[in-house]
From TrEMBL:
Pfam families: FBA_1. It comes from the Eukaryota. The lineage of its organism: Eukaryota, Viridiplantae, Streptophyta, Embryophyta, Tracheophyta. InterPro entries: At3g26010-like, F-box-assoc_dom_typ1, F-box-assoc_interact_dom, F-box-like_dom_sf. This is F-box associated beta-propeller type 1 domain-containing protein. It comes from Nyssa sinensis. Residues 203-352 form the F-box associated beta-propeller type domain. SUPFAM superfamilies: F-box domain (SSF81383).
């Protein structure tokens, strides 16, 4: 509307505006003198004396009616010029006198779109961050679009594939094990942009939760791709040297600021109980959950945790699973497969929580067991011959899955991917630093870190 008003101000003569009502058309002109009695056509019986009365136009001021004439049943053929209504009846909808019909520069009609426009709008959001950063050199238009927060939000929502694993042993320097060197990558050094050396505690949909090693245990939220980071305020309670903490970030169409939450299961000192402290980027503060503290049966919570579909999970030392529903703030204890506690990893397969264990069987094969469901029953067993993986009698462990078809297995110092559907084993990396290192799945995302 502001643009239309500006257009009218530019023209001193023959400026018009159309107003549509149920019974008549009202048009504006600069002067009543431009219209003779013959050119006014039929006025539907409205006398000029009535036009002076503001009640005839639902309270319109008489000063506003000096340039108004009401027409009833006007036909476009009665007009001498088809542009009489500012181009309304003109076949050229891009008439310079009516900017309402001019498409914005950043919007193109389907018939005007080229292949590059289709790629820009419908392909780029589904690519990993490394590829997108490389494509910024294609043109100035692509550079502006890829650097914009709009594409960052759209790509965060559309691209969810695990791109690799963050590996860290103790408080050492973390490294990134990519699943595809040409497609997935992180700038090196990995977290050198943070103000201190850190331990990566949790990873979720492109964001990392790190904790400083300089004594105060400060938490940081960051994205290593764009090197954005935020320092979190100190929590109200002591989380311990190896906190059972989980980062929860759910990309969605409505989560434009990329808000996240951090959940820590805090054990009570000398008590077999735990309560939950939550940080929200919306509220920018920590709070203690309203959920009752839960008894851990004299067991300890393992470092880190796993987040999936609104629920945080922690494995305990007694072979149980502690679960916390973030939305409803309720907690509970779930079973783990008997005899497998501590030997597996929590992950997601086919949309449900699973626990995967990899063992070195006596004989000539490795065995991978997949447990799932609310009772964690055995769903599938996979046997990998030594000849198939090219390694015999070595330690093995499972890592979180890339997707529902690709599992990750570490045998000795080699990382393998196993494609369940094709029963195919692929070597990903033969030079792992440490078999017992911490491995966290990472998504190569452009997500921008919300203020903390």
């Amino acid at each position: 509307m502001a643009e239309h008003q500006n257009d009218e101000a530019e023209y001193s003569d023959n400026s018009y505006e159309i107003v549509n009502s149920e019974e008549c058309y009202i048009f504006l002109t600069d002067s009543e003198e431009d219209f003779s009695a013959e050119s006014r056509l039929q006025t539907g019986g409205i006398e000029s004396s009535v036009l002076e009365n503001e009640d005839a136009f639902d309270g319109t001021e008489s000063s506003d009616l000096e340039n108004e004439v009401a027409f009833n049943g006007m036909e476009s053929s009665d007009l001498e010029n088809e542009d009489f209504f500012g181009g309304i009846f003109s076949s050229d909808l891009n008439n310079e006198y009516d900017s309402r019909f001019i498409f914005p520069a950043h919007i193109k009609r389907k018939e005007d779109m080229e292949i590059k426009d289709v790629v820009k709008d419908h392909v780029l959001p589904f690519l990993p961050a490394k590829s997108l950063l490389r494509f910024r050199s294609v043109s100035k238009e692509w550079d502006r679009w890829i650097a914009s927060p709009f594409l960052a939000h759209k790509q965060t929502y559309c691209f969810r594939d695990v791109s690799g694993f963050l590996s860290q042993y103790g408080n050492g320097i973390p490294t990134f094990l990519t699943l595809n060197e040409s497609a997935f990558g992180i700038p090196w050094p990995l977290l050198g942009f943070l103000p201190e050396s850190t331990v990566v505690r949790s990873s979720c949909n492109g964001l990392l939760l790190c904790q400083g090693c300089d004594g105060e245990g400060i938490y940081y939220i960051c994205n290593p791709v764009n090197k954005e980071w935020r320092e979190l305020p100190q929590p109200n309670y002591y989380h311990g040297s190896e906190p059972a903490i989980v980062l929860a970030f759910e990309p969605s169409v409505l989560n434009i600021p990329a808000h996240y939450e951090v959940i820590c299961a805090v054990p009570l000192i000398d008590q077999p109980l735990a309560y939950f402290e939550i940080y929200s980027s919306k509220e920018k503060s920590w709070r203690c959950s309203a959920a009752d503290s839960i008894e851990l049966e004299f067991s300890e919570l393992k470092e880190g945790g796993f987040y999936m579909k609104g629920t945080a999970y922690w494995e305990t030392s007694c072979g149980k699973l502690l679960a916390f529903d973030l939305k409803n703030e309720v907690c509970g204890i779930l079973p783990l497969p008997f005899g497998s506690a501590g030997s597996g990893v929590l992950t997601q397969m086919h949309g449900e929580l699973c626990y995967i264990c990899a063992n070195n069987q006596t004989g000539n094969a490795y065995k991978v067991d997949i447990f799932g469901g609310i009772d964690m029953h055995l769903k599938q067993s996979i046997v990998l011959d030594f000849e198939l993986v090219g390694a015999a009698n070595r330690e093995c462990r499972a890592l979180p899955c890339v997707n529902s078809n690709v599992m990750m297995i570490v045998i000795g110092k080699t990382l393998y991917s196993y494609h369940v559907r094709d029963q195919k084993v692929i070597v990903v990396n033969r030079e792992l630093n440490n078999f017992s290192a911490r491995y966290l799945p990472y998504v190569n995302s452009l997500v921008m870190v919300a203020p903390s």
